[in-house]
Amino acid sequence: MKNSLTLGDHGVRNGNVLHMFFRQLGGGCAMYYIDKELFDTRFNYDFTDIKDDGKKFVRGGKNYSRPTGCKRYAIKVNDKYEDNKWLGCSGDIKEWPVAYHGTKENNSHDIAKNGFDLSKCQRFAYGRGIYCTPDPETARLYAKEYVFQGKTYHLIFQTRVNPKTMVVVKKADLNGHGEYWTVPENGHIRPYGVCVYPV
């Protein structure tokens, strides 16, 4: 961040949620925020004390690993898409499977506001596409730690993925971790929640 620029120059407006954390090297300060207007609090969910051992959930024909241990803040999606059948949980054929995506703090606001942008992706270890995983613990490996009010957190996005275009590029190991999916088009992976985990 340049010292001559204001918060407004970075797109921060009155009422934005602003988290600050300090980097050890060089003493620089990085900014982390998502505009509170992008959230739909009616669908927030507290997974912090939930245990899913032995329970099975399915979304879009794929196993759904719930993000236990986090607080999930719902992103507004009602006015973004033609319908929300992709977001269903009844087994409807238009329902999409759940996946997770970990990212850098400076990408979070744009993803919550505009969705994913393949042109901003830099590494394609298993082929071109937006990477995600059905396992929240695998996604957390790509989440950057940040400190807010003296506590450290991870943030990952909860998404739905179009099953017709997603590609399984790496299968899970024996513990269920490490499966990766790629999505070749921006609109075929849709963020609908921000999962915040205490570290």
TrEMBL record:
One of its GO terms (molecular function) is NAD+ poly-ADP-ribosyltransferase activity. It comes from the Eukaryota. It holds the Pfam family PARP. Residues 96-154 form the PARP catalytic domain. PANTHER family: UBIQUITIN-LIKE DOMAIN-CONTAINING PROTEIN. This is PARP catalytic domain-containing protein. It comes from Panagrolaimus davidi.
